[in-house]
Amino acid sequence: MIDLGHVTLLILAFWAGAWIWRGLGLRDRALSLVRSHCSKADVQLLDESIALVRLRPGRNRNGRIGLIRRYAFEFTVTGERRYPGYVELHGAQPLNLELAPHPFPGEGPDKPPSNVHYLR
């Protein structure tokens, strides 16, 4: 026999499943943003994956309250070293996408980066 308790559990299970389904869709959106940014920056996304590292309440640029998801990933320039990066989404809207400081393609470890100027 189905009573109100069973209906409540079914509604909660459905809600949790829908929330997880939406989270997976947002993860795919973040991954496509990262792939696009890495190809524009001429770096290689490693492992073709990202990981959810933080979920917190916050506001977007318009002041709207919601959940901010932070996904971490790793990339490389030459294939020798891994560098971290992250992307933050407020819903499906990207807030931040950052790559750690890294050498630009074509610059070796002995050659200083072209964007660094030394004062003498």
Low-confidence stretches are none
What is the oligomer described by this structure?
single chain
Overall pLDDT confidence? 85
Q: Could you give the distance between the termini?
A: 84 Å
Question: Concise description?
Answer:
By secondary structure, the protein is an alpha+beta fold.
Would you give an account of this structure?
It is built from one helix and five strands. The chain is an alpha+beta fold. It has one domain (4-99). Strands 1, 2, 3, 4 and 5 form a five-stranded antiparallel sheet that branches. It is elongated and about 70 Å long. The model has no long low-confidence stretch (mean pLDDT 85).
Notable features of this structure?
elongated, alpha+beta, 31% helix, 1 helix, 5-stranded antiparallel sheet, 120 residues
List the helices and strands and how they pair.
Layout lengths: L3 H37 L3 E2 L5 E9 L5 E12 L6 E8 L2 E7 L21
Antiparallel strand pairs: 1-3, 2-3, 3-4, 4-5
